[in-house]
What does this fold into?
Amino acid sequence: MILIKSKKEIDLIRESCKIVAETLQLVKRHSRPGVTTFELDKIAEDYIRSNDGIPAFKGYSQAGSFDFPGTICSSVDDEVVHGIPGDRALMEGEILSIDIGVKKEGYFGDAALTVAIGNISESKQRLMKITEESLYLGIDEAVAGARLGNISQAVQAYCERAGYSVVRDLCGHGVGRKLHEEPSIPNFGRRDTGPVLKNGMTLAIEPMINMGTYEVKVAPDGWTVSTKDGLPSAHFEHTIAIIDGKAEILTVC
It folds into this structure.
């Protein structure tokens, strides 16, 4: 069941989303060669807790894996999502996808971005650019009365025209009292299909776009998802609310 949120609930989600957005920008500023993903994780957790938030990912569990140990998901180069922070030092030329969730006063916010570590290749720059642009094209389709498939098709069409592939094993989702709620929001699909979008829906839209094949694999840790062909992947995400017929991005500072 897709939950419709009240204005009060959306305001609470907005507060969690604000902390998410601020934390992402803080971590982005500290993402440079030589810094470990564990150091970035500590920066994120300290900031979230200083704002009376709870790291939403820390301790999160899914079937077949141990509880996620980090505050952020830190995914490097060919890692698509769910990379576990550790003692790996970031290197010049890599790209880092940072995914952060926050719970505050019983409501969640969720967002992600991909950043360059030092100077990166033109091919990685373009991958990041197209992925981020596809996110905003998807958001533009989140209007009351339209179908969910319009979001999916907008992302897929734009990225595939650019020569990239859309990850099919992972998707966006509703967000609110739970980190993951209905509906699932794939980044591929057909226009005018799926549930009708309504005022009061809160959605996390998150293109995960690969330079090569859309196929992915899961590491033995049960969390880290990587591209099967070893080529880079980028990830951008915003939590939005449909208000007065159109999307409002909540994960902004």
User: Anything to note?
Assistant: The chain has a mean pLDDT of 97. The domain at 7-249 is CATH 3.90.230.10 (Creatine Amidinohydrolase).
